[in-house]
Model the fold of this input.
Amino acid sequence: MEPITFSERSLSEYTAKQLIDFIITQKLQPGDRLPNETELGKALGVGRSTVREAAKILISRNIIRIERGKGTFVSQNPGVPDDPLGFQFVQNKSQLILELLQLRSIIEPSLAELAAQNATEEEIERLRFFEGKLEEAYKKHMDHSEFDVSFHTNVAKCSHNSVVDLIYPVLIKTVPMTVEYTQGVLVPETIDDHVAIIDAIARHDGDTARSVMDTHIKRNIQFIKTANIE
Done:
């Protein structure tokens, strides 16, 4: 990083841009720790208060996060806000879920097919791990939505399409909402579908992976339509 040696109208904004450059040039990954405020201030030629204000800007943009007592880290999906499309303000949740599921039905079968073509053995084992955690949570009558999200997210990652990593966190928000609205009614079918998807990916059978994923999502669509939940 080059020290800042000139006056800026918004020094904190400029410092924030320098911090972004640092994250990029150092090839820091989500979860990697940044230097502390003092070290960053010396490198940039600014005070700790300026570094602190710059950090606030990056936190608001979901580029970094602070863990008290541990330090400052690169966020998961840096630069992607938690709710970029404002889903929390949509009044008709059932319609929102339905439309997100319809979008998923267009995208995810193709991702499952790509996953069957590109997944490594390690990635397939991760799918089995999250599916196992989902089944365990269901049997214990616990919330399983976290593991459902992890399963679908990792299927998407198996596609090895870097753009998917950026847009999928927005798309997958439908999973917890769907679980809540279906009240777990479809979990047995979900487990069967997940297992079939994993098996198809493990066999590198793209046609079956696509077909099962399509059936899996459309089953949820049909439930939402017939339930007519507001």
The first strand starts at residue 64 and ends at 67.
